[in-house]
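Hey there, shall we discuss this one?
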Amino acid sequence: MTVAAFHIVRPTNLLGFAAPFLALAIVAFLAGFGGYLILGPANVLGMSHGAPTASGSAATPADVYLAPADHASNPPKAV
């Protein structure tokens, strides 16, 4: 037998291996949470902040803008 077959196994340093991944996770979390705090939730980014209604109540169905339908792709209705 050769001496090279018997070698001492050193335990791996788990913290040294995981430290770059942990740092990346912390930076990603801080960037995401900071963006959430600065910009707000994703569903409010596209909202327009118009003038409030005179009554101050919630919008009625008549106040809601409905986009016109694409009549080119819809067949005509039977009368």
About this structure: Helices lie at 14-39.
